[in-house]
Design a protein that fits this description.
- The chain has eight helices and twelve strands.
- It is of the alpha+beta class and 332 residues long.
- The strands form three sheets. The protein has a five-stranded mixed β-sheet with strand order 3-2-1-5-8. The chain has a five-stranded mixed β-sheet with strand order 4-10-9-6-7, covered by helices on one side. Strands 11-12 form a two-stranded antiparallel sheet.
- A hairpin with a 2-residue loop joins strand 1 and strand 2.
- The structure holds copper (II) ion.
Length: 332
């Protein structure tokens, strides 16, 4: 249609294609893109992607060129011998050489995706419908427990130890590294080395139930000094004055599912809330971390996240929910 029409129509069609073409590129940038990389593993996979796309494009151009040549070539007949040779070389020989070359290249990249060396920071992540349990292990230091956010130092290899509490989930921070399944009863590992500080977005990449698309997290790559300072705050008890919200939190039984360091709340069914106030998001990446968002999550988690294991507390008086939210937001 584009090529068979009046020149003016043709120009406007070209203009329209030119107008929408940036849309094809806009999926490639941003904080959740495997092509806008900030980690060495992601660099390797995005280079592989471009090599595969580039090779495919070259072959496509060559095939179209040969097709045009064949249409124009007025040679009356090909000898059987010449035709057989062409089919042999351009068919099985060429295809298997190219595919073997690309396969070798892809396999050669794999050592970079293997577990990191000993002594690296280990971050244990457990997928749960529909949130992430996060535990930081560093040699000679007590583990620090967190949830729904991952922080890592720039320039240091990190080994993620991945598990699942219920169904199969998949852990993926596209800007930083590869994707790895979290399988019940199995432990998988994934190495990542961040090389640019920033906040990226990770997500569950395997359908795991109704709210699968609402199971995300922030991944914050920090300069090593900042990371050490931050990790030290995570290992400390949250500094909070005895707020009225704390009393309500314990009285309404939230502590049977949630842990808050330094209180009687020791539950482990839901995310650790010891430092909730310092996280970027609430509800595994679905809401910005504000007091209002926390209050909303407490009152109607079933609306925000269908199928969630967190019961709703909309029967509580709004002032009690606000007091609890105020207390939780203050936990830093
Ligand atoms: Cu999931």
């Amino acid at each position: 249609m584009v090529f068979g029409c009046h020149p003016q129509q043709r120009r406007s069609a070209v203009a329209r294609i030119a107008a929408v073409s940036p849309l094809f590129g806009c999926g490639c940038a941003g904080r959740q893109s495997a092509l806008d990389t900030a980690g060495s593993e992601a660099d390797a996979t995005s280079l592989l992607f471009w090599v595969l796309v580039g090779t495919g494009a070259l072959i496509w151009v060559a095939v179209v060129g040969l097709l045009v040549y064949a249409i124009r070539d007025r040679r009356p007949t090909w000898s059987e011998d010449a035709a057989g040779k062409l089919i042999l070389w351009a068919g099985p020989v060429f295809s298997s050489t190219v595919l073997f070359g690309l396969l070798t290249y892809a396999l050669w990249l794999m050592p970079g995706l293997r577990p990191a060396t000993d002594g690296a920071l280990r971050i244990e992540i457990t997928g749960s419908q529909f949130w992430w349990r996060v535990v930081y292990h560093r040699s000679a230091k007590p583990p620090a427990i967190s949830a729904n956010e991952v922080r890592l130092p720039v320039g240091e290899p990190v080994e993620f130890v991945l598990r699942s509490d219920d169904v199969v989930h998949s852990f993926w921070i596209p800007s930083l590294g590869g994707k790895m399944d979290m399988i019940p009863g199995r432990t998988n590992t994934l190495s990542v080395l961040a090389n640019r500080a920033g906040t990226y977005r990770g997500a569950c990449a395997e359908f795991c139930g109704t709210s699968h698309a609402l199971m995300a997290f922030s991944a914050v790559a920090m300069m090593p000094e900042d990371f050490d300072r931050w990790l030290a705050t995570q290992s400390r008890r949250p500094a909070s004055a005895a707020a009225p919200g704390q009393d309500l939190f314990l009285r309404h039984g939230c502590g049977s599912c949630h842990r808050i360091d330094g209180t009687e709340a020791h539950g482990s069914v839901g995310p650790d809330l010891s430092h909730l106030g310092a996280r970027e998001t609430v509800g595994a990446g679905i809401l910005p971390n504000t007091e209002e968002a926390i209050a909303r999550f407490i009152s109607e988690p079933d609306v925000l996240k269908p199928g969630t294991r967190m019961p709703s507390f909309r029967m509580l008086p709004p002032e009690e929910i606000s007091a609890i939210a105020n207390y939780l937001k203050g936990l830093k």
